[in-house]
Specification:
about 425 residues, Glycosyltransferase, 16 helices, 6 strands, about 5% strand
Length: about 425
């Protein structure tokens, strides 16, 4: 298994997939195209692009590339500003807690403001960064505190799948990303404890109530709230949860540097247990996108298997599922082409053993092209014939590159 430079691979990804790259491939425009922010999926992807650009800028030595990265950030920020989606009146409780994109974007803004990336921007772009960052920091902190009161603290008797394992009535992944982004901003940008109470309350309750270890298999389920997926777990949303929890530790015990992970409140420990769970799965099989709560062995789900779980839930008291219609959307997720690559958001943990397992599995499963002297991460980004099919995993990989750079992981593998 060859080792490659994380920075070089990130630079190559920038040159190929971003408009200002020297080798930009317009056929792959679906991956980093600047799309309509009214779509929640787009917010997620653009937030992950922002993380990637913010982490790459201070580390690349080429001054011309730095300028082009800054231009790419400006494109994104102008899009954000013109959309009006981040005005205070738009950042309502329901909007923030129903869309992972808000936490993703605040994290990207924190990475910009904490270092030299901010200094590389023009005055107008700096002004947009400052305004949107303040709006998000203030409103996400306010809503996370309310979330703890409305959802977390009142869920004292959560639904237990088959009477054994607690499943929250709310989505954990979105709130975990909010807590993580607030924590990074608090620790590295404004050295503030403004939202510490909400961060600690959320994280302590989540780890204490829903973090479950059983025969070395650890799993924090997505939960319910407004998603039709309800308590079904998934590689993608569990990766979001682990990513958020690992960063939320910085709001509990700051380190002043993402290269020094914080284990305040044991949140990083729980996140690493999620990675350890998937590592055991990856040794022999893919990490399919959606599966039965607390009973995942890596086998591919089917409509029949999903319906069987729904039937089981409908028989149980206080279930999150009350009719088959409420879970119908879940079957559409069976069409995801690169579910294992969704785990690259967990690169923010800095767990190299886990990352090597993901690298190996995406190559063996055909989710990555089998290329010489190309990392498994980058080989996933345009492995599929339809460019639109590459976008979901590719943007998670961009976030993964940002996590590796920020955590100081200098080498990655080709997965062979």
């Amino acid at each position: 298994m060859a080792l490659l430079s994380t920075l070089t691979e990130a630079e190559n990804a920038f040159e190929t997939y971003f408009e200002y790259g020297n080798r930009y491939n317009k056929l792959l425009d679906q991956i980093t195209g600047h799309r309509n922010l009214a779509n929640s999926t787009t917010k997620q992807r653009m937030g992950m692009q922002l993380q990637f650009l913010a982490a790459l800028y201070p580390r690349t030595a080429d001054t011309n590339r730095k300028s082009r990265i800054a231009s790419e950030i400006t494109l994104l920020m102008n899009n954000f500003n013109n959309s009006g989606q981040f005005n205070v009146d738009k950042l309502t409780y329901s909007a923030v807690l129903d869309d992972p994109g808000h936490g993703m974007i605040l994290l990207g803004l924190a990475l910009i403001k904490k270092g030299s990336t901010y200094n590389g921007l023009n005055a107008n772009t700096k002004g947009i960064v400052d305004t949107i960052a303040k709006n998000l920091f203030d409103k996400l902190g306010q809503h996370l505190y309310q979330f703890c009161l409305n959802e977390v603290n009142t869920d004292t008797t959560p639904y237990k799948y088959k009477g054994l394992n607690p499943v929250p009535k709310f989505s954990l992944n979105i709130a975990a990303l909010v807590a993580g982004a607030l924590s990074v901003y608090s620790d590295l940008v404004n050295k503030s404890t403004a939202h510490r109470s909400a961060i600690v309350t959320f994280s302590n309750t989540v780890v204490g109530r829903y973090g479950t270890t059983n025969n070395s298999r650890t799993f924090v389920p997505i939960g319910g709230r407004s998603t039709n997926r309800k308590p079904f777990g998934s590689s993608g949303y569990n990766a979001y949860t682990g990513m958020g929890l690992s960063l939320a530790a910085h709001g509990h015990t700051g380190t002043g540097d993402l290269r020094i992970p914080s284990n305040g409140g044991q949140y990083l420990t729980q996140a690493k247990q999620i990675a350890a769970f998937y590592t055991s799965v990856l040794l022999s099989r893919q990490a399919y996108e959606i599966h039965e709560p607390f009973d995942f062995n890596g086998t591919q789900p089917t409509v029949t298997s999903i319906n069987a779980v729904v039937e089981q839930m409908m028989k149980e008291p206080a279930s999150l599922v009350t009719s088959k219609d409420t879970i119908g959307h879940a079957t559409g997720l069976l069409n995801h082409k690169q579910p294992t690559a969704y785990l690259y958001n967990l690169a923010w943990l800095g767990d190299t053993t886990f990352l090597a397992a993901v690298d190996k599995r995406v190559v063996l499963a055909g989710e990555a092209k089998n290329l010489d002297q190309v990392s498994a991460m980058r080989a996933c980004m345009n492995a599929l014939p339809n460019p639109a099919d590459n976008a979901p995993a590719a943007n998670r990989i961009l976030s993964g590159f940002a996590g590796l750079l920020e955590r100081g992981i200098n080498q990655i593998t080709d997965g062979k």
